[in-house]
Amino acid sequence: MPRAGDRTGGAAPFEGLPSIRRARTAEAALLSRFMAHAFLDAFGHGSRQEDVLAHVRHHFSAARQSRELTDPACVTLVIGPPGDYAGYAQLVFGQPAPEALQAQAPVEMRRFYLRRDLHGRGWAASLMEAAKATARERGADALWLSVWQQAPRAIRFYRKHGFETIGTAVFHVGTDPQKDWLMACRLPAGG
Ligand SMILES: CC(C)(COP(=O)(O)OP(=O)(O)OC[C@H]1O[C@@H](n2cnc3c(N)ncnc32)[C@H](O)[C@@H]1OP(=O)(O)O)[C@@H](O)C(=O)NCCC(=O)NCCS
């Protein structure tokens, strides 16, 4: 099974990153592969294999990415050229937010990944800033997300970037109910 760090094309390693941009519809197949690999690498060990594979098939097919990339409510930001991604973030507008979040215009950060071999370089921070800027541009005043309670690195990262825990949620990997934290941060205008 390929891992998130496998190269799917392209040449240069990521010396000068980041250049962060919105993914194009034509990238659906490449992006779905990267998303699947990133999920397997980060969370593949957390549930039974059949549950993990069911989750990947459901959420990361090329057809699903085509739909998400053409959905005006969904914004997918990527770092890196097609097929040589370093990471991605996905925002979904217009979703019901957790009740504990008191906000006029909350937006969900549904997915946020950086390749494992690129962790710790500050590039995830750049991706987060770009995601926050995109959310603000579309009028959002808060960002919320759900993160696995057994993902301490991600939780620490989100805390560093202004997120606080506002509750718990159940996240299904296939048939496996996993315990998540709900986290949120304010997006002050101009901030
Ligand atoms: C979440 C993610 C994007 C953050 O990117 P990153 O480059 O790793 O982030 P940073 O290195 O800036 O921050 C990670 C922090 O966690 C800390 N950390 C690392 N391992 C840790 C652990 N086991 N427990 C607690 N903190 C830990 C790091 O020291 C760093 O904190 P510091 O800057 O105060 O030293 C990246 O780790 C990732 O893609 N993870 C896998 C996918 C994932 O979990 N996505 C979130 C899904 S909701």
Automatic annotation (TrEMBL):
Enumerate the InterPro entries for this protein. Answer: Acyl_CoA_acyltransferase, Bact_Acetyltransf, GNAT_dom
CDD domains tied to this protein: NAT_SF
Say if the entry is tagged with keyword Transferase: yes
Which segments constitute the N-acetyltransferase domain? 18-188
Matches recorded under SUPFAM superfamilies: Acyl-CoA N-acyltransferases (Nat)
Question: What Gene Ontology molecular-function terms does this entry list?
Answer: acyltransferase activity, transferring groups other than amino-acyl groups
GO CC terms: ribosome
Record key words, sorted: Acyltransferase, Ribonucleoprotein, Ribosomal protein, Transferase
Name used for this protein in its record:
Ribosomal protein S18 acetylase RimI-like enzyme
This chain's source organism reads Rehaibacterium terrae
Upper taxonomic lineage: Bacteria, Pseudomonadati, Pseudomonadota, Gammaproteobacteria, Lysobacterales
